[in-house]
Input
Amino acid sequence: MEIVAVSFKSLIKSMYPCHSLVPHNRLGNVSWQCYYRKYNTSQHYIRQYYPVLRNGGVLCPQVKSQRQTFVHFSVNNAGNRYLHTSSPKCALPPALLLFLRPLSKFAAILFGRSLRMWWKKLPADKRLFMLEAFRSHRYLLLGLGASIGGGICYFYITHLEVDPLTKRERFIAFSDDQMKAMAKIEQEAMLSKFHGCVLPASHPVYKEVAKVAMHILESNMDIDKVKHTNWSLIVINSIDDKNAFVLPNGTIFIFTGMLTVCNSIDQLGIIISHEVAHVLLSHMAEQMSRLHLHELLMIVPIIILWALFPDGVAMFSQWLSNLFVNTLVHLPFSRSVESEADEVGLQLAAKACLDVREASAFWEKMKSLSDSESEEVIEFLSTHPAYDTRKKFLDSKVPEAMKLREKCNCPALSPLDPRTIIKTEISRKIL
Ligand SMILES: [Zn+2]
Output
């Protein structure tokens, strides 16, 4: 297989190979190589690790994928058995669940609009008769409304769960099986979208990323959900995508563009830990549950809106209310779960003895690579916190993570703080 070198080559040339390697940080002895890099103009050297392939490159943007395969990690020795302590959930098929939200909204609009049209065409005496009938049955209608409201409240209360890791109470309306089935649909869609770009499990880059992921998982086997999830990894060969994400079934997607941003194993490990944390905290199930609950609660207001107002006014009001709800409810929630995954991910990384200070250094670097001003302005319209917010938040969590590292008897970290180093590098523009 031909490997095309794209980055780190010139950087590595300016460094000195390590004489001794720390077995823990190497995570295997195939491709991660250690180099001393001169820090600043002083006599200090910093030890860094780079995934170096046979010809000195690190990634392969033009490699043709021979087989679209990926491996399931062998950390799960409990098969598909899930610990399920929550109350039983409704068992709607996942394909129906995916269409239910837009379908319910569309049906509510159609019903409200039809109601308005029907009322318009009704003769005056019939209208009076209908109003009278409505008045005389008002208690029955109020009782019906209260029963539906009570049913929704009951459903909400019986689907509240306390997360074992964060102790936060959250509303989860979907079972693990439903989430896994939906994840399978999403996974197949992603695999067909990136057809031809999925690195095979035999690819050196894939192997290296898998080693880091395995190390994170193996270091956190005391967490039940880590043990009982069928983790798998898909590396997508797309150098322009600096991204990674995870599906609720434990499938982690990493784009090669993200690997080019990572300076070290520690940074890659922190990214993977963040994705693992999303699965452990059932963030996708929680977000979907909230969205479905919101849609359910909006059915009656939408019917009333379309029944009372002309199409243009109803459409504008609905657009405005969606904008408000999205900006004031959904997006802040999305950012809060990202911060939660950052915090829990940092703890997972600490237990794997990674250098937790690299988390903040990574976001400092991401910030320097982006148009930072525009990014700060649009944070409130974003699903993720701004890079600077993430960096500061992770910085505040580093002391706690360092204590956890100590508890896990991890080797001492370099006295040179990567956060200071990255700042110096940015100011000198030598990233
Ligand atoms: Zn995330």
About this structure: The pocket of zinc ion is lined by residues 274, 278, 338, 341 (CB under 6 Å). The mean pLDDT is 78.
